[in-house]
C-alpha cells in the first residue's frame, strides 16, 4: 500500500521541506485531493526516520484517514471539536485547516493515548490546539459551542483488515453491541454541542453497516439532524467510493482504494438555541501571567509568531493558552500547548519548537547546508560552528538550528560546538 504524508509548516516553507526530503533521496508527488498531502514513491529509508519527520515537518498518515477532516471542511478561524482524537492525525489536519486564528479542542479519554496525542501535536508545533481527557459522552461543554465537530468513535475496525488480519477475530459481530451503544451516545452528545447550522462529520474505519449507515439513519430519526451531500475528492473516484442516504454517506472500499476502508457521513444541525455567549472577558485564567522580557534568553525568541493568546506559568511550565479557549466553561479541565520550562530566570524552550525561531541570522543560530551533518547532529555528534556563526557574546544555551534557512529547532551551544539535546 502506498505511503502518504502531510507537510506541516508555514506556507512559505513548503518548498524547503520538499528539498529536505529530496536531499535524503525521497521521491514523492502531490496528492490530488489536498495541497497538504503527498504520496511517496521511493524511500531509501523508512519515511519516519527522515530528517523532515524528526523535526515534525511531515506527518505520515493514510490517505483515507485524511478524508474526515477534509470533508468536515472547517473554514479558517473555525472552532472545532475532535471528540475521539488520539493519536492526533485527524486533529493535526483539522488544526492546519482552521489555521492559527481558529481553535481545535482535542478530547481523548485514555490517559496513555492522551499523552501520545500531546506528544504528536507538540512535535508538529500546532499551538492552537487544546486537549482534554473525558469520556466523549460526558464532556462538560455547553450546547451549541462548536461550529464543526469530528466524531471518529471507537469501532470494530473491519476496514483495516489488510493491516490487521486478525481484526475480524477480535471484533466478531456478536461482540459489537456495546460499541454500537457507545457510538449512539457519542452521536447524541455531539448533536448537543453543535451550533445551529453547524456541521458534524461521523466517520469510522469499519465496513460494518450497523456501525455506519444504520447509525446515521438512527441519528436522522432520533436527533434534529439532516444529511448533507458529500462530494468525491480528486483521487477518490466512483471506483473506490459509494454514497447513499441522499448522498450524505461515503464508503472507501479497501479492495479498490489506495488506503484503508473508511465510512463517512456529514450531518447538519438546522434548529436549536443560539450559541452561548463568549466568555473572553473573564479574568480567572489558570496559571500565572508571565512577563517574558524578564527572563534570560527570551530576547532571541520570536514570541510574535504565536497566535493570539496568553503565555502563562504553571509551576515552572511555560504554557500557551490560545485566545479562543476563553470560551471554555469553568468546569472543563483542559491543557494548552507546553512551550518549555523556566529554570530560575532562564527560559528553556522545547527543542523542537521551531515556530518561535526568528529568521536566520549569523551569530543567532547555526545554518546547516549538508543534510548528513544534520543527521550526525541528531545521532549525538557535536558540530563545530563556523567562525561567522559563533555567538558574539559569551553564550551557553539554546541556539537556533536551521537547514538552508528552514527553522528546525533549538540546539545547545557550548563554546564553539553545537549539540542537539532533545527535550
Automatic annotation (TrEMBL):
<dbReference type="GO" id="GO:0001510">
    <property type="term" value="P:RNA methylation"/>
</dbReference>
<dbReference type="InterPro" id="IPR049560">
    <property type="entry name" value="MeTrfase_RsmB-F_NOP2_cat"/>
</dbReference>
<dbReference type="InterPro" id="IPR023267">
    <property type="entry name" value="RCMT"/>
</dbReference>
<protein>
    <submittedName>
        <fullName>16S rRNA (Cytosine1407-C5)-methyltransferase</fullName>
    </submittedName>
</protein>
<feature type="binding site">
    <location>
        <position position="108"/>
    </location>
    <ligand>
        <name>S-adenosyl-L-methionine</name>
    </ligand>
</feature>
<dbReference type="GO" id="GO:0003723">
    <property type="term" value="F:RNA binding"/>
</dbReference>
<dbReference type="InterPro" id="IPR029063">
    <property type="entry name" value="SAM-dependent_MTases_sf"/>
</dbReference>
<dbReference type="Pfam" id="PF01189">
    <property type="entry name" value="Methyltr_RsmB-F"/>
</dbReference>
<keyword id="KW-0808">Transferase</keyword>
<comment type="similarity">
    <text>Belongs to the class I-like SAM-binding methyltransferase superfamily. RsmB/NOP family.</text>
</comment>
<keyword id="KW-0489">Methyltransferase</keyword>
<keyword id="KW-0694">RNA-binding</keyword>
<dbReference type="GO" id="GO:0008173">
    <property type="term" value="F:RNA methyltransferase activity"/>
</dbReference>
<feature type="domain" description="SAM-dependent MTase RsmB/NOP-type">
    <location>
        <begin position="1"/>
        <end position="270"/>
    </location>
</feature>
<feature type="binding site">
    <location>
        <position position="152"/>
    </location>
    <ligand>
        <name>S-adenosyl-L-methionine</name>
    </ligand>
</feature>
<feature type="active site" description="Nucleophile">
    <location>
        <position position="205"/>
    </location>
</feature>
<keyword id="KW-0949">S-adenosyl-L-methionine</keyword>
<dbReference type="InterPro" id="IPR001678">
    <property type="entry name" value="MeTrfase_RsmB-F_NOP2_dom"/>
</dbReference>
Amino acid at each position: 500500500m502506498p505511503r502518504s504524508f502531510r507537510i506541516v509548516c508555514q506556507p512559505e516553507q513548503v518548498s524547503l521541506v520538499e528539498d529536505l526530503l529530496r536531499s535524503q533521496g525521497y521521491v514523492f508527488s502531490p496528492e490530488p485531493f489536498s495541497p497538504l498531502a503527498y504520496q511517496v514513491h521511493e524511500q531509501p529509508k523508512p519515511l519516519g526516520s527522515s530528517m523532515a519527520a524528526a523535526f515534525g515537518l511531515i506527518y505520515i498518515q493514510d490517505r483515507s484517514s485524511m478524508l474526515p477532516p477534509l470533508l468536515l471542511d472547517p473554514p479558517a478561524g473555525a472552532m472545532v471539536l475532535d471528540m475521539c482524537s488520539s493519536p492526533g492525525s485527524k486533529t493535526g489536519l483539522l488544526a492546519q485547516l482552521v489555521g492559527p486564528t481558529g481553535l481545535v479542542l482535542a478530547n481523548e479519554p485514555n490517559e496513555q493515548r492522551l499523552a501520545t496525542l500531546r506528544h504528536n501535536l507538540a512535535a508538529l508545533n500546532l499551538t492552537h490546539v487544546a486537549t482534554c481527557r473525558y469520556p466523549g459522552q460526558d464532556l462538560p461543554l455547553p450546547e451549541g459551542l462548536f461550529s464543526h465537530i469530528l466524531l471518529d468513535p471507537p469501532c470494530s475496525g473491519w476496514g483495516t483488515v489488510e493491516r490487521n488480519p486478525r481484526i475480524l477475530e477480535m471484533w466478531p459481530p456478536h461482540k459489537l453491541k456495546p460499541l454500537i451503544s457507545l457510538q449512539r451516545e457519542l452521536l447524541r452528545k455531539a448533536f448537543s454541542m453543535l451550533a445551529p447550522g453547524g456541521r458534524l462529520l461521523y466517520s469510522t474505519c469499519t465496513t460494518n453497516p450497523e456501525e455506519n449507515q444504520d447509525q446515521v439513519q438512527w441519528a436522522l430519526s432520533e436527533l434534529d439532524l439532516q444529511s448533507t451531500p458529500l462530494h468525491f475528492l480528486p483521487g477518490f473516484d466512483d471506483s473506490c467510493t459509494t454514497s447513499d442516504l441522499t448522498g450524505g454517506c461515503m464508503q472507501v472500499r479497501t479492495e479498490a482504494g489506495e488506503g484503508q476502508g473508511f465510512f463517512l457521513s456529514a450531518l447538519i444541525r438546522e434548529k436549536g438555541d443560539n450559541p452561548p455567549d463568549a466568555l473572553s472577558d473573564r479574568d480567572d485564567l489558570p496559571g500565572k501571567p508571565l512577563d517574558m522580557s524578564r527572563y534570560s534568553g527570551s530576547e532571541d525568541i520570536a514570541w510574535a509568531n504565536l497566535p493570539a493568546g496568553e503565555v502563562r506559568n504553571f509551576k515552572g511550565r511555560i504554557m500557551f493558552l490560545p485566545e479562543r479557549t476563553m470560551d471554555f466553561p469553568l468546569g472543563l479541565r483542559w491543557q494548552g500547548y507546553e512551550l518549555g520550562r523556566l529554570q530560575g530566570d532562564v527560559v528553556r524552550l522545547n527543542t523542537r519548537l521551531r515556530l518561535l525561531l526568528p529568521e536566520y541570522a549569523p551569530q543567532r543560530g547555526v545554518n546547516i547546508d549538508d543534510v548528513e551533518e544534520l543527521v550526525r547532529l541528531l545521532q549525538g555528534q557535536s558540530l563545530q560552528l563556523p567562525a561567522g556563526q559563533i555567538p558574539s557574546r559569551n553564550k551557553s544555551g539554546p541556539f537556533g538550528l536551521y537547514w538552508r534557512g528552514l527553522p528546525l529547532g533549538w540546539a545547545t551551544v557550548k563554546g564553539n560546538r553545537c549539540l542537539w539535546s532533545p527535550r
